[in-house]
Write a structure and sequence with these properties.
single chain; 280 residues; alpha+beta; six-stranded antiparallel β-sheet; 12 strands; 35% helix; globular
Length: 280
């Protein structure tokens, strides 16, 4: 994957991700991340469901980027290189599945999934109350969590990043500064290439024109605002849409529902930065 390392603080991945033990199907880790903090690029033998109970995350694999609000999570299959950054102050709640359990075999790459009410409660219970349960309870609750994880709907909401280093650097800049509306001419100057070259790179490497890529990125960034209860009008204007109707039409084309129908979730409670493995 990309060797890009942001200037923000880089944290180490959880030890829980590297423990192989079929008797403990699910291990957990909680962490509060400051805005613009990150986890160093890594992979691990356990599959991971990465979810921020509060805040906005950015996840990058070799060729794609995901912007993940609290209404969604990402499933990261085992041994898949990735990097995690927090766009805002974020409360992450992670579960790690032992590789002996076949989870979501259809997903061989990172995938964004919609969190159900049950899945949110299961993750919170495991992450924040495991010290109150005995080994039998933890094992049974872990298996229920794996069953629910299998049912989560996937969302085609990734941002293709390509492999060309010039384009990769530009996309990193765009993702780190989501509120800046760069023109192609500005990107070309930053990338040391012509406008025509940047246009060609976007189309060849991502399958999208720069305008299409930017629109998808803007829509992904709208999910967090909507989940926090901001009005459709406010979100549409903050993203630069000329009308609410044009924003609604683009949103429905991307996510299959209008912004008004998008699930509204209350912020979830969260605790401190701690490692809470399931106990035998």
């Amino acid at each position: 994957m990309s060797k890009y390392v942001p200037k923000a603080t880089l944290l180490t991945p959880s030890d829980a991700a590297f423990i192989i033990d079929a008797n403990r199907p699910v291990l957990t880790h909680t962490r509060n991340m400051a805005a613009e903090a990150g986890i160093e690029p890594h992979s691990h033998p356990r599959g991971q469901l990465l979810w921020a109970a509060k805040g906005l995350l950015r996840v990058r694999s070799e060729h794609a980027v995901w912007v993940v609000p609290s209404t969604h999570a990402v499933w990261i299959p085992c041994n898949l290189p990735h990097q995690v950054n927090s766009e805002t102050h974020a409360h992450t709640r992670n579960i790690y599945i032992d590789p002996s359990y076949g989870v979501r075999p259809q997903d061989t790459q990172v995938v964004m999934v919609t969190m159900t009410a049950l899945m949110r409660e299961l993750v919170l219970k495991l992450c924040e109350s495991s010290h109150l349960m005995d080994s039998g309870q933890l094992h049974r609750l872990g298996l229920v969590t794996i069953d629910e994880l299998q049912t989560l709907d996937s969302v085609d909401a990734h941002l293709p990043a390509g492999s060309d280093p010039r384009l990769s650097r530009l996309i990193q800049t765009l993702v780190r500064q989501p509120k800046v509306n760069y023109s192609l001419a500005e990107l070309a100057e930053m990338g040391g290439a012509s406008v025509r070259t940047i246009e060609r790179l976007f189309k060849a490497e991502t399958g999208l024109t720069y305008r299409q890529w930017r629109q998808r990125f803007r829509l992904l960034n709208s999910l967090e605002s909507l989940s926090q209860g901001e009005s459709t009008t406010m979100v549409a204007h903050s993203l630069g849409y000329l009308s609410v109707s044009s924003f609604s039409a683009a949103f429905k084309m991307q996510f299959g529902c209008t912004p008004q129908d998008y699930p509204q979730h209350k912020p979830m409670k969260s605790g401190g930065d701690q490692f809470i493995p399931m106990q035998e």
